[in-house]
Amino acid sequence: MKLTILGSTAGAPSRTNAASGYLVEHDDTTIWMDAGTGTFMELAQRVDPGALDAVVISHTHVDHCSDIFGLYGYLAFGPSGDVPVKVFVPEGAAEHLAAFARASDEHIFNMVLDIEEVAPGAEVFVDDVAVRFGEAIHPVPALVTRIEAGAASLVFSGDTGPGGDLIEMATGANVLLCEASMVGVRDERTYPFHLTASEAGETAAWSGVDRLILTHIGAVMDPQQSLDEAAGAFAGPIEYAAQHTVFEIEGR
Ligand SMILES: [Zn+2]
Ligand SMILES: [Zn+2]
To answer: Which residue of 83, 103, 135, 191 has the lowest C-beta tally within 10 Å?
Structure first.
């Protein structure tokens, strides 16, 4: 399995990095995981968006979903592709996204995108790639995603605070791609819907993953500080999800 970082900033794209978006490839299967602001162009430079096998949207905050409308335009108004493209979203997101496009059931938005809501605990198959979903702790319905292809496994936290299904979902995975929106020590004033870098490290340690990749790091933050703080809690390899990085994920 191959993971390409299309963008990894938190909240907003920066001048040099798109928001949350990842390309997951296994043999001929391609999955676009999170369609954050600026990631459609990055995707289109690597694969034909019309040949995607599936899209997974972790939640409907704009830094994770805005570029689904780029894919919609590509499929609806050309160059198009093998439609409809399957899109997995959390509860309530199908109506939410369609509303922005002012799309009724017969609207072309719903002709080119086959949007399916999935609940925590759901498992779907994209070709022979298994995709399982869990609950993230966030102000809107949000998913943790586990992708298994052959012997390789990748878990993506989405945006989440402590708790939810992340540790259970990540248990034994080869790679945990984990949000680390904050640095420093959590206290009662800390926003409860994101993780600190050290909490990302703790999650990696408690779930026994092989490697930790830190993402969702704000444009004004220093990723090295996040790496250092995570390393205080996790002894395994830790990398920053720098845009354009390609990670090869292999099973044990
Ligand atoms: Zn976010
Ligand atoms: Zn969010």
So the answer is: 191
- Hey, which residues does 133 pair with through a beta bridge? 145
Residues, CB within 5 angstroms of ligand 2 (ion): 61, 159
For strand 29-35 and strand 54-56, is the pairing parallel, antiparallel, or unpaired? parallel
**3-class secondary-structure state, position 177:** strand
CA of 11 to the centre of ligand 2 (A): 7
49 C-alpha vs ligand 2 centroid, how far in Å? 24
Residue tagged 């444009």 (tokens): 219
pLDDT-based confidence at residue 238 (cuts at 50, 70, 90): very high
Contact 40, 13 (CB under 8 A): no
Q: What DSSP character marks residue 120?
A: T
pLDDT in tens, 49-105: 999 999 999 999 999 999 999 999 999 999 999 999 999 999 999 999 999 999 999
Those residues with Cβ within 8 angstroms of residue 220's Cβ, 6 or more apart along the chain or in another chain: none
Per-residue pLDDT tens digits for 106-125 = 999 999 999 999 999 999 99
* pLDDT, averaged across the chain: 97
Q: How far is the CA of 59 from the centre of ligand 2 (A)?
A: 7
Q: Ligand 1: distance of its center to the CA of 20 in Å?
A: 7
Ligand nearest to the CA of 160: 2
**C-alpha 122 to ligand 1 mean position (Å):** 22
* C-alpha 125 – ligand 2 centre gap (Å): 25
Q: 39 forms bridges with which residues in the sheet?
A: none
